[in-house]
## 1
Amino acid sequence: MEFKDLQLSEPILRALTDKGYTTPTPIQAKAIPVILEGRDLFAAAQTGTGKTAGFTLPLLQKLTTLKPLGGRRQVRALILTPTRELAAQVAESVNTYGVHLPFKTAVVFGGVGINPQISLLRSGVDILVATPGRLLDLLNQKACTLDFVEFFILDEADRMLDMGFIHDIRKVMRYLPQKRQNLLFSATFSKEIRELAAGFLNNPASVDVAPPNATSDRVAQSIYRAEKHEKPALLAHLIEKGEWNQVLVFTRTKHGANRLAERLSKGGINSAAIHGNKGQSARTRALADFKSLDVRVLVATDIAARGIDISQLPHVVNFELPNVPEDYVHRIGRTGRAGSEGEAISLVAGDEVSYLRDIERLTRQKIPVNETPSGFSAPPKPSQPDPDDRDDEAPGGRFVRRGPRPGAGGGRGGSGPSRGPQGRSSGGSSGGSSSSSSSRGPQGHPRPRH
Ligand code: AMP
C-alpha cells in the first residue's frame, strides 16, 4: 500500500513526497482509513511507529472538508500531549504535512510566557496543540474557545495519566462540544487507559500495531552488569570503544542526569542533561546540539525524554533501569525507529536486578548479558533497591507506581519485600501488564542468571 491509495488530497500527498515518504507505516495504514471514515479511534502505538502522521494526515484531510465558519479562524482540532517537547514536535509535524494547506497551527505549553500565546490564539488558529495545564490557564483567561472543536486527540494518553493529568484532561473536555470525533493514542492499554477511553470514546475502532508492551525487533538489547560506582567509567569506556557519536542516556533522577553529564564532559565526552528543572530554552538548545551532533551524549530523565523525536538514534543506554517496567519499553523505543536499526544497553547494578526481572516479564524476553569488560567488576549479589534512586521527576517520587493504594493489598508494585529480590513469591509467567513476582523468567523459562 502507498499513501496515494489512502484517499488523501493532493496537497497532503505533495507534503509527504517532499519528506520522501511513500509507504505508510502499519499504524498509518490502519488508522488513516478509520479516522477518515469519521469514527472514534483507540490506538495502541508507541513513539517511533509513525503515529503522529497516523493522526495528523487524516486530521488535515478532514479539516479540508469542513464548512468554513465565517469570521475569524476558530480552533477546530485540539491535540493534547503530555510534554512540551512532544507538543512542539507534534506541531512541527502538523506544519510539515500541512505545508501546502491554508491552516494555521498554534502550540501552547507551560514554562514560557503566556502573553504571546494569548495574542496568538486571539489572532485565530485552526489547529491547537497543547499541554493540559497551560491550556486550562488560557481557557480561564478566555484566550480562546473550544466551542468549535470537531476533532479531539489525546496523544500518549498513558503518559498523561502517569504524569497526573487526568483531572486537567477532564476539565478540558468540559469545554468541548458534545459532537466531535475523538482519537486516543497510547503506548500501553492499561486498565486506567481503558477506563479513560470508555469515558469519552464513542464506539471506537481499535487499532493495535504491536502487542502492548512489545519491544521492537529492530532494537538489539543487552545488559552489562555493573557496580554502581563504576557505571560512569563503564559508560565512558563503551562510548569511546564503540565510537558512539549520538547516545541518549537515561537516569532516574534529575540530579543524577546533571552529575553524569558533567562527569562525561570532564572526561572529554561532550554531554548535556535535560530534565524538568531546566528551562525550556536550555532544553531546546540541548536537543538541537544533540541532533546536530555537537553534543555526543544527551542524559535525560524519563519525563524529559518523552517525545524526543530523533530519527535513527543509534544508541540508547539505561544508566539506571527504570523502576516502572513500561518505561523501559518507552525508553528503548527511542532507537530503531521507523525502519532503522538501534542498540539499547542497560547497566544493571545489584540492586536493580528486581527491576530487570519485571522488565523481562513485561516484555516477555530474556535480555542477553554482555561480558563485563576487563578492568570492571560485575556486582556479586542482588541487593535491595536504594531509596536514594527514587525518580525525582514524578510528584512525590516514583519508587513504586500504579500500585494499589496503601491498604488495598496485593497486586503490582509495593515497596515491601515482595518487590525486592528477596522474598519474591513464585507466580505465573503470563507477562502482559501483570506484575506478580515470579521465580521463573519470561515464557516460564528458569529465572535468568545475571
Ligand atoms: P512518530 O512515531 O510519530 O514519533 O514518528 C517516528 C518517526 O518516523 C518520525 O521521525 C517520522 O517523521 C517518521 N515517519 C513517520 N511516518 C513515516 C513513513 N510513512 N515513512 C518513513 N518515516 C516516517
## 2
Amino acid sequence: MRFSRNINALDLGVSFEFFPPKSEKMEETLWASIERLAPLKPRFVSVTYGAGGSTRERTHNTVSRIVRETSLKPAAHLTCVDASRTEVDDVVRGYWAAGVRHIVALRGDPAGGVGARYQPHTDGYASTPDLIQGIREIGDFDITVSAYPEKHPESPDVPADIAILKRKVEAGATRAITQFFFDNDLFERYVERVRAAGIDIPIIPGIVPVVNFAQTAQFARKTGASVPNWLAQRFEGLENDPATRQLVAAAVAAEQVMDLVDRGYRDFHFYTMNRADLVYAVCHMMGLRADQPVSAEATKAA
Ligand code: FAD
C-alpha cells in the first residue's frame, strides 16, 4: 500500500455530503455524524436534494439547522427536476433568506429514476447552465456543479460530457465535485482532458467509502462508475463480517485518498451516507485533527 508519509494536513481540504433524514431515528444519526465530523473543520458540508415537496422541505430544514446551530458552511444541493422556474427560484430565495450562500446546482435525475429519459418541466429550467444563470440572478451564491470522470450515463462520450461542464463553468460554476470513482488513473486522465478543454475550476474528487460492497457496485452500475476487480476481491467473503468490512473499507478509501495526495490533489469531497465513522478514520489517516487550525484556502485541487 503506497501511503504518502509527508502530508502537511494544513494543506488539505475536505467537504462532507449528507442526505436529509426521513425519520427521527435517521435525524439523530445525521446529527451525531455532523457533530463528530464538524471539529475536522470541513470547507463546507453539503446536503442532497430530491424531487417532490417533502424531500425539498427536508433539505431546507437540514441546511437551515446547520446554519442556525453550527459554524459549518452548508451547501444546499438543488435540481430542476419537475419544478417550474418560479418554484425553483422560491427555493433559492428561501436559501438566501436562511443565510445559505453556496448551492450545488444540478439538473437532477428524471422522475422515473436513473436511465429514464429526462424531460424538462415545461416552465422550468431546461438544463444546469440555465439553472446556474437563474440562481445568479437571485443572489451572489458560490456555485458548485457535478463532473463525471467516466462520463454521465446519458453522454455519448467524454468530450460531450466535458462540453457540458464547460457550459456550466461559463454560466458561473466555481468548482466541480466528481461522481465517485475507484480508479485514480482514470480520474487523472479526465482532469487532463478537462484542463485541455480550457476549464480551470477545481475538480474535487468525490470519495465514497464502501460501506456495503454489493450496494455500491449496484449504484455504480446505474451511475456508470466502473468497479475494478481488485476492489471486488478486497471485499470477497466478507458478506457476513461487517466488522472486517469496516476495516477494509477504511483502508481502501484511505489508500485512494493518499494516492491522490501523492499525485498532488489537496481537496476531497466525502459521500458520508450520514455515517461519520469511516470518513472520520480516513480523515484521521490524512492527518486531520479535531480543532487544528485551518490554512488559507489551499485549493490546488486538480
Ligand atoms: P449535467 O451535468 O447538467 O448533465 C449530465 C448529462 O446530461 C450531460 O453530461 C449530458 O450527457 C446530458 N445533458 C445535459 N444537458 C444537455 C444538453 N443541453 N444537451 C445534450 N446533453 C445534455 N441528484 C439529485 O437528485 N439530488 C442531488 O442532491 C444530487 N447530488 C449530486 C451531487 C454530485 C456531486 C453528483 C456527481 C451527482 C448528484 N446527483 C444528485 C445526481 C445528478 O442529479 C444526476 O447525475 C443527473 O442525472 C444529472 O444531473 P447533473 O447536474 O449532473 O447534469
## 3
Amino acid sequence: MTHLSILREVFGYDAFRGPQQAIIDHVSAGGDALVLMPTGGGKSLCYQVPAIARQRAGHGVSVVVSPLIALMHDQVGALHEAGVEAAFLNSTLSGEEAAQVEQRLRRGEITLLYAAPERVTTPRFLAQLDSLHERGQLALFAIDEAHCVSQWGHDFRPEYRQLTVLHERYAGVPRIALTATADALTRADIVERLQLEDAQQFVSSFDRPNIRYTIVEKKDATTQLLRFIEGEHAGEAGVVYCQSRRKVEDIAQTLADAGLNALPYHAGLHAAVRQRHQDRFLREDGIVMVATIAFGMGIDKPDVRFVAHVDMPKNIEGYYQETGRAGRDGLPADAWMAYGLQDVVNQRRMIDESPAGEDFKQVMVGKLDALLALAEATDCRRVRLLGYFGEVYGSQPSAAGPPQGGHGPLGGQRGHEVPSVGATCGNCDNCLNPPEVWDGTEAARKLLSTVYRVQQQSGISFGAGHIIDILRGKQTDKVAQFGHASLSTFGLGAALGEAQLRGVLRQLIATGALAVNPQAFNTLQLTEASRAVLRGEVPVMLRESVSAPAGRRTRRDRSAPKAPAAVAAALGAEAQARFEALRAWRAEVAREHNLPAYVIFHDATLAAIAALAPQTLDDLQGVSGIGASKLEKYGAQVLQVCGGEV
Ligand code: ADP
Ligand code: ZN
C-alpha cells in the first residue's frame, strides 16, 4: 500500500504538502530525518504515515516523544477518530490505566504510542522497548518539538538530553526529529545533542503567507489591544501574550470587563484551572486566552485568528513560534505586537541579571538585537523574519539541507542576511501601509565618526552611552578623563535628543553598520558596512513613530483592510445554513467524545460539505478531511444534517 493511499484512506486528504512525501518515503524506508517545518506545515503526518506504513509491514509500534502532556489526550483522540490505534503514557494516567496501555503495547495492538520524555528514559519503559526490539517490533522513534533539546531553543527540557539513549540502544530503529524552530544555532544543537549527524535534513520554507504581521508603537498597550481585537477580531479566538503573571491577570480582567470572552493562563494558576481554561479555549468558539509563554506549545487549534504580544518576546524564534499559532488552517490571521523602549530595557536587564555565563548572555543579546531590528524595520517584516532564518523571501530553500554559510543570528554578520532588499510581501503593516520615515543619514555619519575618533584617540572602544554623551556635548567625568571634549564631533548632535540618537544607534546595529561587542562591555565597533554609511552612500531611514525628533507628529493609521472573517464567508445563504447546522452537530459530537471540535472535522471540511449539499455517501467521498473511518462513523449523520437521504 502506498503512502498516498494511506493519506487518502486514513486522513481523507488527496495530496501531500510540500516535502511531506519525500520525508515519509525516507523515514518509512528506515532512514533518519530532521524536519524543520513551520507551525501548521503538517509535521504530524510526517511520522504518522510512516508509523502506519511500518506497522502494516510488520515492524510494530512507533514511539512519539513529546513534551505536550496536556495535549496527548486530544492527539490520540484525533488518531482514534481516523481509525488508527494509538495510546499515550504520561503522568496523567493512573497506574492501572498505564498497565493497560503496556499490555496493549506488548500484544502489538498499538500503532502510535505517545510518551513524555521523562517516561521514555525510565528503566521500566526501556525494558519494555528492549523486549519489543528483540522481537523486531519497534518501528520508529519520532521526537516532536525537538528544539526542546537545545538550550538555545526557547523551551529547553533537560529530559530531552537523555534521548540519545534511543539511538545508542536501538541503533537500527529509524528516528525522525521535528521542530518549527529553525535558527542555525538551535538546528546544529539538535543534530549534535540527538546524534543526528547522519540524518537527512528537510528544511521547508518558513513563510506563513496567511499571517499578517503588524508591530505598533506601544502607548497604552491595553487600550491598543482592545481596539485591535474589537476592530478586527470580534468574537474570534485569539491568544494575547504577556511577560508577567500580573499583567496576564490585569489584561484578562480588562478584556472581560469589555465584554470579551477572555481567560487568564499562567504558571501561577492552579493546574486544574489551567487545564480548564485550555480545554475551554480548545473546545469553545471565540475565546481569547491571555497568557504567559507557558501557554501554547503544541496547541494545534487550527482556527486561532490572532496572536497579540503586549510585551516583546525574548527573540525572533519565540516571536515566530508564538505568532505561528495563528491561522494554522491557512485562513487569514493576524500577528500583532505593541513594542516600546521599555521592552528593550526590560529584556536587556533580564539578560544582565540572569545567572547564565557570559557566552550564553552574548548569544541572548545578539538574538534580542535581531528582534529589535525587526520591530524598528521600515521595510517588509516578512522579508526580515525569513531572512533571520536564512531564507530569501520568494525563493524556496532546498529540501536537502540547511542553507550554507553563516546564516542566522550567529552568522557573524547580523543584518546582512537580508539580501532581498526592496522585496515586499503585501501582507504586513509596512507593506500595506508604509511608515513615514525620517532621514537619519547625517546623524548616523556623526555617530560612526565619533566611534571611529574615540578609538583612534584613546586606543580603546566605548559603549553607546558615552558615544551619545560626546555627540550631545555633555561634560561627563568620562569625557573629561579621556579628553573627548576635544573631538571634532563633540556636541555635533546636540540638536537631536537622546532618544533620536539611540534610534539611529539601534538602526545602525540592526543593519550591521555598527557592532556591539558583548565580550568587551558592550562597546561599539565599526564594521565592514560602516564605511558606506560614513561616506554617505547608504541612507539611514528611521521609523518616524519610534524615533521622531520632538515636535513631529507620528502617523497612526491602522486602516489596513480587514481579513475576511470566517471560512464560510464565500458560501451562499443555503450553504451557510447547512454550515451552521453542521457546526452545531459537530459541537455535540465533540462534547460526547470529549474532544475539540476540530478533531471531528475542520471548519474547512464542514464548509466544503455545506457547499456540496451531498445527497449520498458517495458524494462525501473525496471531500478533504473525510477519511474512511470518519465516512463510516459520521457519513450518515452528516447527510441527515444536510437534509439528504440516508
Ligand atoms: P504542525 O504540527 O506542523 O504544526 P499539523 O501536523 O498540526 O502541523 O498540521 C496542520 C494542519 O494541516 C492539520 O490540521 C492537518 O490536518 C493539516 N494537513 C497536514 N498535511 C495535510 C495535507 N497533506 N493535506 C491537507 N491537510 C493537511
Ligand atoms: Zn511585507
